[in-house]
Amino acid sequence: MIKKIKGFLFTNQNARQTIVKNSFWLSVSNVGGRLIKAIIIIYAARVLGVEKWGIFSYAVTITAFFTIFIDFGINSILIRESTKTEDPAERSRILSTSFTIKTVFLILGAFLIIFIVPHFISVQGVKEILPIVVFIVIFDSFREFGFALNRAYEKMEKEAGLFLLTNVAIVVFGFIFLSLRPSVKSFAFAYALGTGLGVMATAFILRDKLRQLFSDFCFKLVKPILSTAWPFAISGVLGILMINTDILLIGGLLTTKDVGLYSAADRIIQIFYIIPSVISVSVLPLFSRIAGKDNTKMRRVMENTLGTVMLVAIPISIGGVILGGNIISFLFGSAYSGATLSFQILILTLMINFPAVILSSAIFSYNNQKSLIINAIIGGFLNVLLDLILIPRFGITGSAIATLIAISASNAYLWNKMKRINYFRVVPVLKNIVIATLVMAIVTFVLLILKTNLLMNIGASIFVYFGVLYFTKEPLLKDSLAILKIKI
Which end of the chain has fewer CB atoms surrounding its CB within 10 Å, N or C? Predict the structure, then answer.
């Protein structure tokens, strides 16, 4: 049994098992790692208070705009192109050239953040921590590049350990620095040290593959990589515009306290957004191999993957709406209760975002990444427009409404585009999921009325939801359990 488990978790055996293995490790690293980091995030938000937490969130959000320029889609190109070739020399050239391009963009991005961005910031306290936040961006960028290399070889188990180590380091340094001096700058230092330790560990683990990091640079690959990456980069810029504009505009139109409240709600949502990203990264190598070559198999894999993410997204969204106030108070304290309605609106985006992430990977696998630009344009600019209209009137609730509408509109285009490339259906697989969610919602609401402990309520709701799926013989659940050799 131990040998089978070890083989399942550490060896690539077949396409289905590899996807599940990689999804497992990415779930452990991303979900587990971020839950670990959430400990220090929640602690910092409580210790710093709403306004100071708003300052830190604002600084991180500003620098996030530049991370997409630094990546420029290079990580995704590295995964896709490395997966397509079996030639070690070609893989080395792709790696070396991609890393060199990324380093150049990183230097330019750091220069802009340190010397240009401060001239456009009016929020008090943000400028002082920008130089520290730059190091966080640099360390995270190099670490993510190392993770992309692991993903190209479909060895996500290594990434899991590195990601967990990084987040444990952030938590440890965070508690130490905040206990010595509870300030925004102190927390920023702790965060930078933790990410720095993570990038050093990543470089050590990948040292064998990084030995020819610069020597195999191929100038002829620069143009193909950039020409392939730029549509992905532009869509990423507009995507970040859609995600992070809220906080920037709230900071400009309202107060840092409002930034702190909205950021608290958004932090929880971003943790859930990891789930489809984990699955997307796991299936991207398979998508890249079969897209355009075996459309029937591609359609089947895509429909099953979409059904799986909806199986998770729908109950989380409905349960989050019902328990929103309790979740915010439990995590951040009563001082953040003003974030409840924003959280309840934002968590509905999960039902839209989860399948959209998978569809984006599928479109990318068909080398139709230019289509992602239109999707991002719709979402990015609509979100900005609605933010400017709704924030002055409805505050942070208006910003949440703007995000929900923008994501819905942009992803309607995404669904339509993918159906034109390779027609698929998802609605037929949702029947049991909807039934299970309705039963779960009733139980969740009744337990809320009875003032049941939040964690007990969540646990009971999860049990009821999967129990209904079990008794309705939901095929998606059966397939998942079959992979683990559990008969249903």
Answer: N
Largest CA-CA distance found in the chain, in angstroms, rounded: 67
Cα separations (Å) of 116 from 68, 430, 446? 17, 49, 54
**Amino acid identity for residue 41 in this structure:** I
Could you tell me the two tokens for 69?
């320029």
Q: Please write the tens of the pLDDT for every residue from 318-330.
A: 999 999 999 999 9
Mean pLDDT for the stretch of residues 75-89: 69
The pLDDT of residue 482 is 43
Is there a contact between 144 and 75 (Cβ–Cβ < 8 Å)?
yes
Instruction: Give the highest mean pLDDT range of 9-13, 301-305, 423-427.
Output: 301-305
CA atoms of 255 and 459, how far apart (whole Å): 37
Q: Cα–Cα distance between 364 and 134 in angstroms, integer?
A: 30
For 235-248, letters b (16+ CB in 10 Å) and e give bbbbbbbbbbbbbb
Instruction: List the structure tokens of 77.
Output: 């190109």
Distance CA 234, CA 230 (A): 6
pLDDT of residue 204: 86
- Per the prediction, the chain carries an average pLDDT of 81
Burial of 6 (0-12, 13-18, 19+ CB in 10 A): exposed
Confidence of residue 7 (pLDDT cuts 50, 70, 90): low
Residue 405 to residue 295: CA distance in whole angstroms: 32
What are the distances in angstroms from CA 133 to CA 47, 257, 380?
A: 20, 20, 24
Rounded CA-CA distance 228/240 in Å is 20
| Size of the chain in residues | 488
Q: Which two tokens stand for residue 281?
A: 């990264």
